[in-house]
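## retry 2 of 3
previous attempt timed out at serialization; input unchanged, resubmitting
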Amino acid sequence: MQRFAWPLVSMMVLLAALGCDPKPKESGGTSGDGVPSTQEPETAAAVEYGIGDVESSIVLALTIIDDGDLGNIEIQELETTKYEVALVNAQLQKPYPEELMLNLRIRAYNNFDGHAVKIIPHFFFDEVEVELEGFIYGGTATEGLRNIQIEVFKHLKEGAPTVLIRAELELSLFLNTDVSEVTVDTPPTALTQSIPLLSNPVRIDFLP
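## retry succeeded, writing output
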């Protein structure tokens, strides 16, 4: 047993002479001179809220209202992979109905807490633009759907065999602003962010 003790004692003496610490140093928590580090771990920078967040939160669907009184009409709706309306094609034969209504469904999937979003709807019948009354979204944007209806024949060129219709929402984000401080007539400020949001197109062919 003694012949195994001598090498161990000799190694301990040698380590002490060399100033070596046989215990491994703990990684992290100290600086290079052995003083505990006070540096906080880096955190991700705060993401600033912007108009792109508003745009991605609102989904539009422009469709033809078919109440059964449109006569001889064939409507085809194409959907995206997320079951959202991508395109509407319709063929309408004479005798045409007295009116042909479209419905723009506006659905917000997120509330805009602490911000005000002014929305002005526009409809385009080919190159003819029609602007309707706007509204304000805020912290209760997700409560229910908003529907805007418009009549087609009033905005058509006489004798036009076809028309391409789309809707466009003019979105204006007023950051850190309560909805009570913004109306549809509130002008944009230097910090207001704006962007258009387009609906799916609707193509209507008027057959003889």
